[in-house]
Amino acid sequence: MDLSDIRMIYVLLDGVGDLPHPDLDGMTPLEAASTPNLDQLCKNGALGQVISVGRGIAPESDIAVFNMLGYKFSHSDYVGRGVIESIGVGLDFQNGHLALRGNFATMDDSGIITDRRAGRTIDREDAISISKELEEKIQFSDGASSIMVAPTIGHRVTVVLRSDKQLSGKVTNTDPAYSNIGGMGIAKAVGDGLQIERCQPMIPEATHSALLINEFTEQSTCIMKNSSVNARRHQSSQKILSCILLRDAGSRYPVLVPIDKKYSMSFSCIVDMPVELGIAKVLKMKTFEAGDITDYTKKAQVAAEAMQTQNANYVHIKGPDEYGHDGDAKGKARNIQDIDRNFFGPLLDIIDTERVAVVVSADHATPCINKAHSDDPVPLLVSGINTKADSTSRMTEAYARQGRIGLLEGSQVLSTAIDIIRAEK
After folding, report:
1. 330, 258, 274, 281: which is closest to 28 by C-alpha?
2. 86-121: pLDDT as tens digits
3. How is residue 205 annotated by DSSP?
């Protein structure tokens, strides 16, 4: 089968993988959820497992998605999530600038972080106002540096530092929940009592970068404490925006083979988050608009329509990951049911399954019991009318261990799925 004849919708359910949970009688959210449409895809498909980045690595979404699209990095090769997000939100990032991902967070009077996401949902007006205040009031000791603070979605913010000196991304995070391993963000096992960490240079050339980050952290914490934005938030019993936790610094623009060239196919995507938008821009992937983050039916319609002009459409669905971070196993199961009903249901009503294959997986696991990303394998489903089906009947972690596809690395998923579709179409 020629590659130009392939039609494939590739869905990543963000953080859908999980572990058994007591709130679900020892089941995972995928096991507890009612998913008749995914079950139907399983009947015409085969399952396997995926370790998205590597054993022992609890990845952030950026590096996980790159791997799940077939781009494998060593630590030293990766530019850092901050760079990808700055590209995604359209900031003027150039080599030698320093870009970081940030979280608005809430601290108590003793400096203990009580919420790394400041309630997760933050009024857009508040986020913009306090970000502008920081840009106007921060004064760096060298007098030649400046900062851009760009709030994105919810608690998320992107920060870009500029200086007359070449800046380096070889610095540690101030966010205590993540390590920076050569630009690659790795979730740490953490408990209570977290505090902002002081940024340290990893190499001598990064000393000035660390200095600027620490000056920003110290000044911004003071500015935010006295901001009228927080006075209003306190009066309305909203969580205070106490600080910005920074991670995943980078100082160079990525240069990668475009995804169309990599697979000799026309690839498009439906993505919402800044990091996924950045990945799409870096890989020169055509992007389709498809409603807001939870407009699953619209996403299904647009993905199906994309098959008229595209070989493949990659759809990133955010929902399950947030319930995993909140430790809400029942909510995660309900969200999976919602996605099955409102995305996979309409999708199967629209597409011709004799022509269009459906591939479903996750960028990583986010176990509710951990409230964080993990390195646990996630399920992989490849489904098409002529796909050689295996004995599995549901897309769950347990069935995935039994599937005939076996255990793959994330960077192998797309090439393996394409080979299955070509061989068995």
Report:
1. 330
2. 999 999 999 999 999 999 999 999 999 999 999 888
3. G
